Every structure is written in structure tokens, then in C-alpha cells.
Amino acid sequence: MKRILGITLAFVALAALATFVVAGEGTKIVKVEGKLSCASCSLKMADASGCQDVLVVSGKEGAEPTYYYLVKNDVAKEFGHSCKDEKAVVVTGTLEEKDGKTWLAAVKMENPAA
User: Fold this and answer.
1) How far, CA to CA in Å, does 8 sit from each of 12, 16, 32?
2) Contact 73, 105 (CB under 8 A)
3) What is the pLDDT of residue 57?
4) What is the CA radius of gyration of the chain?
5) DSSP bridge partners of 29
6) What angle do CA 13, 17, 20 make, to 5 degrees?
């Protein structure tokens, strides 16, 4: 029994170390403020196959807005989905380019200071 527990703990420690190495090196934490909307319901994006939270950051004077697709993690789920409306939000997290989109994995989401 002790041997099984020891092996299990070793695997958990190894997995934690691997996650730290993958996420730790070259990963930059960013803070982005914008409006949280749904890619499908609110924004009617052509490539949206279902509800997906997107952080829309307005461009400067006539520039196109920037879209950050939120990774569906526990932080995003706790903040809540924005389906037919939009919510002002400040998101702190990490960015990743994937499938031609910029994905934002939130570590913190909050309403902006008034």
C-alpha cells in the first residue's frame, strides 16, 4: 500500500513539474480590458459553431477590434458566460495563438474599477 502511494505521489510530482516547465518558460502574463461577448449569439461570427466567450478590445480610432477567445477553464466558468449581452471585464492570463485565433487562458477575471 505504501509503495502504491509513493508511486502515485511521484507521478503527481512529475506531472506538476512538467506543467511548470511547459507553462513557465516563455509564458507571459498579460492584463487585457474589454467587453465579454458570445462569438455565436452576440457577435454572430461566421466560424462560431456554438457559444464561446470572446473578449473584444476596441481598436484605436477606426482600427478593427482585437478578439481574444477565452479558454473554458474554471476561472472563466466562475465569472459567467455572456450570451446575448456584453460585460465589461479585465482579464489577467496567458495568450496562445492556435488555429488562427488568439486564445486567452484566464487566471483572474474581474469587473473594471469604476
Assistant:
1) 6, 12, 39
2) yes
3) 95
4) 18
5) 94
6) 140
45-103 pLDDT tens trace: 988 888 999 999 998 888 899 999 999 999 999 999 888 889 999 999 999 999 899 99
Q: Is the pTM higher than 0.85?
A: no
For residue 9, give the amino acid letter: L
DSSP the chain: -HHHHHHHHHHHHHHHHHHHHHHHSS--EEEEEEEEEETTTTS--TT--S--EEEEEPPSTTPPPEEEEEP--HHHHHH---SSS-EEEEEEEEEEEETTEEEEEEEEEEPPP-
Specify whether the CB–CB gap between 12 and 55 falls below 8 A.
Answer: no
All three cell numbers of 101:
485565433
